[in-house]
Write a structure and sequence with these properties.
Blueprint lengths: L10 E4 L7 E8 L14 H5 L4 E6 L16 H13 L4 E10 L1 H11 L5 E7 L5 H6 E2 L2 E2 L1 H19 L2 H12 L12 H6 L4 H7 L5 H6 L1 H4 L7 E8 L3 H14 L4 E9 L6 E2 L2 E2 L8 H13 L12 E5 L4 E5 L8 E6 L12 E3 L7 E7 L22 H4 L5 E4 L7 E5 L2 E8 L4 E10 L5 E11 L6 E6 L3 E5 L4 E7 L23 E7 L6 E4 L6
Parallel strand pairs: 2-3, 2-4, 4-5, 5-8, 8-9, 9-12
Antiparallel strand pairs: 1-3, 6-7, 10-11, 12-13, 14-15, 14-26, 16-25, 17-24, 18-23, 19-22, 19-25, 19-26, 20-21, 20-24
Length: 532
């Protein structure tokens, strides 16, 4: 097809082996259309066999499509043109739906922003609604490992398309061994030299949520969009914030069904093995069959029974079962408090999570050394993501741990987790990384969820609220909860130098003081589900 400004975009089209007119399913992606997101979805021919014309299109400047690729810049107009073109394909009945995850999820939002009349429904998976807060940065901290890996991946493909064999080989090697040992990891030489036009440099330059992000974010362009949407996310996906923020916004204002599915998955794959943990057969992705049911309902007008089912389905870690909800759970949070004798960094058993706030306040002190930062392991922001045994990290002196008593009964959590830490530092800026884990009687520790916050005005002793990744989990009777607190999580996030150095050079040792009990109490706010 040709866009309104004359750029040729190429697509593969899969058709049902039958006569008649059919709805169209459109996926627009930057990775070469042959892959068709089959890392997480069934092949397009499977969807075609269910009575759909399936179009997998290379976006502008990628695959074999013409034009210049610029991250997200052309996707509103090109998306609208692609929807209108697909609706008029031979054999089309004029109704178009879209599906896909990550960039392919973003192209759905941009296309929807143009409000083409042929677009009847979308199924965005693992997206950034606010591109700054949901994708590039978390809590004001640059998501280094994911951003860098993606920038090198796209730069490698750009070099291949340009026929620059030397650059391609160098970037390919870097993609398999990220240059995190460079003098300034946030500014790797290979991107500076071989990909000076990468979006990565702009993202670093715009470290605050300014007009650059507002213009680029789908949220800015979707204020009046209203479609039935099937939202798909993963508990250990780095972009779950975007999926949930879009869902919550649409559920609040839409006249159409908004359906949410969150599995125990990382960004990819969507399977039963997530990091070091096997969540069983129930964790295998049901998305393909659910999408066929969704499209049958909204593109073919078939009463599939979908509208009589719960609109929100979340995989409960621990019981390894799917739980249905009428909406995303917004429970009143249960407060648990941090208690210490003041040397929790060395004597781990002295850091306690308790339901009663200690009357006497005691401080814990944590020293962060940028030469040996606390390493990232699993969760949603690291590569690889997922669930891992982390007792060896909790043993470090630069990690404060607070552990509950073994539970008398199962504890069910569902929704947003918030941690409020009363703290200050001896530098103008510092970071807080918080990990919530389940502790087994034999000492094994497995992460459930985590959050990250870059704190400015660091010398003031105030309460800092950290929004952890939402979760749905059952903590088994006899196990315990643990909160682990550190001032780094590298390389998932760029290290805070403590002195607002723009390039992270001359990073300084940071001493952090955490208040527990008394009037300066720190607490964990848990979304506890009452189970009868």
């Amino acid at each position: 097809m040709y866009t309104r400004d004359g750029i040729r975009l190429d697509a593969d089209i899969y058709r049902p082996d039958a006569d008649g007119e059919f709805p169209v399913l459109l996926m627009r992606q930057p990775y070469g259309r042959a892959i068709a997101s089959t890392v997480v979805y069934a092949h397009p021919s499977w969807y075609a066999a269910h009575g759909y014309i399936v179009v997998i299109q290379d976006v502008r400047g990628r695959g074999t499509s013409a034009g210049e690729f610029k991250l997200f810049a052309h996707e509103i107009a090109d998306g609208e043109d692609a929807v209108n073109w697909a609706a008029n394909l031979p054999g089309s009945n004029g109704a178009v739906g879209m599906y896909g995850f990550s960039y392919q999820g973003m192209t759905q939002l941009y296309a929807a922003a143009a409000k083409p009349s042929a677009l009847k429904t979308i199924c965005p998976a693992m997206i950034g609604y606010d591109l700054y807060a949901d994708w590039a940065y978390e809590g004001g901290a640059f998501c280094l490992q994911n951003n860098l890996a993606w920038a090198i991946q796209l730069a490698t493909e750009t070099a291949r398309l340009r026929g620059d064999k030397q650059a391609y080989q160098a970037l390919l090697a870097a993609s398999r061994n990220l240059p995190l040992d460079d003098a300034v990891p946030t500014h790797p030489e290979i991107l500076n030299n071989l990909a000076p036009d990468s979006f990565y440099h702009e993202w670093l330059e715009h470290s605050q949520p300014d007009a650059y992000w507002q213009q680029l974010s789908p949220k800015t362009h979707m204020k009046d969009v209203d479609l039935p949407m099937f939202h798909i996310g993963g508990w250990f996906d780095s972009y779950l914030r975007g999926t949930l923020n879009l869902y919550k916004d649409m559920a609040m204002r839409s006249q159409y069904r908004q359906q949410l599915l969150v599995g125990p998955w990382t960004h990819l794959p969507w399977s039963r093995k997530v990091g070091e943990v096997d969540f069983g057969v129930n964790a295998i992705s049901p998305v393909d069959r659910m999408q066929i049911c969704w499209f049958d309902q909204f593109l073919k007008g078939i009463n599939t029974g979908l509208l009589e089912q719960m609109p929100v389905w979340m995989f409960e870690i621990g019981s390894n079962t799917w739980q249905g909800f009428s909406c995303f759970p917004e429970y009143e949070h249960k407060s648990c408090f941090l208690s210490t004798q003041g040397i929790t960094s060395i004597r781990k058993e002295e850091g306690i999570i308790t339901t009663i706030c200690p009357e006497i306040g005691v401080d814990d002190v944590l020293v962060h050394d940028p030469w040996r930062p606390v390493p990232s392991l699993g969760g949603h922001a690291a590569i690889p993501a997922g669930v891992f045994e982390r007792s060896h990290i909790d043993c470090r002196a630069d990690v404060l741990t607070y552990t509950s008593k073994p539970l008398d009964s199962d504890l069910h959590l569902a929704g947003d987790v918030v941690v409020a830490i009363v703290c200050s530092a001896d530098k103008s800026s510092f970071d807080l990384c918080v990990v919530l884990s389940e502790v087994y009687p034999d000492g094994r520790v497995y992460n459930l969820t985590q959050g990250y916050l870059r704190c400015q005005d660091g010398m003031n002793r105030v309460t800092r609220k950290i929004q952890l990744q939402a979760t749905c989990a059952r903590i088994t009777r006899g196990n315990a909860l643990r909160l682990s607190l550190s001032a780094a999580c590298f390389p998932a996030y760029a290290i805070n130098p403590g002195n607002n150095s723009p390039f992270g050079m001359d990073a300084e040792i940071i001493t952090l003081t955490v208040g527990c009990g008394g009037t300066s109490f720190s607490q964990v706010l848990l979304p506890v589900v009452a189970v009868s």
